[in-house]
Amino acid sequence: MKKTSAQSSISSPKSEQDLALRQPLYVVVAHTLQKEIEQGKYTVGSVLPTEEMLVDRFQVSRHTIRQALRELKDQGLIQARAGIGTIVRTQPGKIWMMSGLNSLVDLLEFATETEMHILSTSTVTADRHLVKMIKCELGAKWLHMEILRCLPDQPRPLSFLKVYVQPKYAPKLKKLKHMREPIYAVLEREYGVRIAEVRQELTADSLDHDIAELVDATPGQAALSIIRHYYDSRGELVQIALGYYPSGRYTQTTRIHSKLDE
């Protein structure tokens, strides 16, 4: 009974209600509150209704409300303040939707819609920790770049990047401070390097304290980590990029086609 009344209390078109019936209740509640924050019903700095009030509004259990609030907290939207309640920390950031990464053209299009701010550059030698993290050879030397990727119209960074490039390409890259193109495009233009293959791995992760602070998120917040290895036409590893995308800011979709013999 609670399930029916909870979903009927959320105003939405019939098609959205049908979708809600197939979702966990806490997701429906979290989505509704997120939309209300986005639309300005709850402004930044304002206090959300108490758990008791939300239980009464949505006609669900306190456990469901706490799950929904935890979801919003993981997205960095709200924060619990002792003696005050749950306050709105920020509005939902723009979530970048990508239709698929099936070619370098997709990566190029993605990069040109964002801004990259280079925080630091240094030369590093791969120790066992780095080998495990980026899957490179022990003792290899790399130009290490730390970068914030941002969307022009959003106050919070989209992601934090650790990029490793062969040091022979350092002279041009060390001069860069801001970019609106991928690093591999700079290598192609300045050094004639042709990237022939990119291998990508996606992993469910969480943000440590330092990265969370850089991207204005919560330590321990769920994140998507993406590591890409870039190979030139000779099969040589040219660049490695490791990106951390806090939950709620980035979505990557992939299309999988099936070819059936007729």
Search tags:
262 residues; alpha+beta; Chorismate lyase; seven-stranded antiparallel sheet; 11 strands
Describe the structure.
The strands form three sheets. The protein has a seven-stranded antiparallel sheet with strand order 7-4-5-6-10-9-8. A two-stranded antiparallel ribbon has the order 1-2. Strands 3-11 form a two-stranded parallel sheet. It has helices at residues 2-8, 14-20, 25-38, 51-58, 62-74, 104-112, 128-134, 170-173, 183-191, 209-214; strands at 78-81, 85-88, 96-98, 115-125, 141-150, 159-165, 178-179, 195-206, 222-232, 237-246, 250-252. 28% of the residues are buried. With 262 residues, it is α+β, with helices and mostly antiparallel strands. The protein folds into two domains: 22-88, Winged helix-like DNA-binding domain superfamily/Winged helix DNA-binding domain (Arc Repressor Mutant, subunit A, Orthogonal Bundle); 96-253, Chorismate lyase (3-Layer(aba) Sandwich), CATH 3.40.1410. 32% of the residues lie in helices and 29% in strands. Residues 1-20 have low confidence and may be disordered.
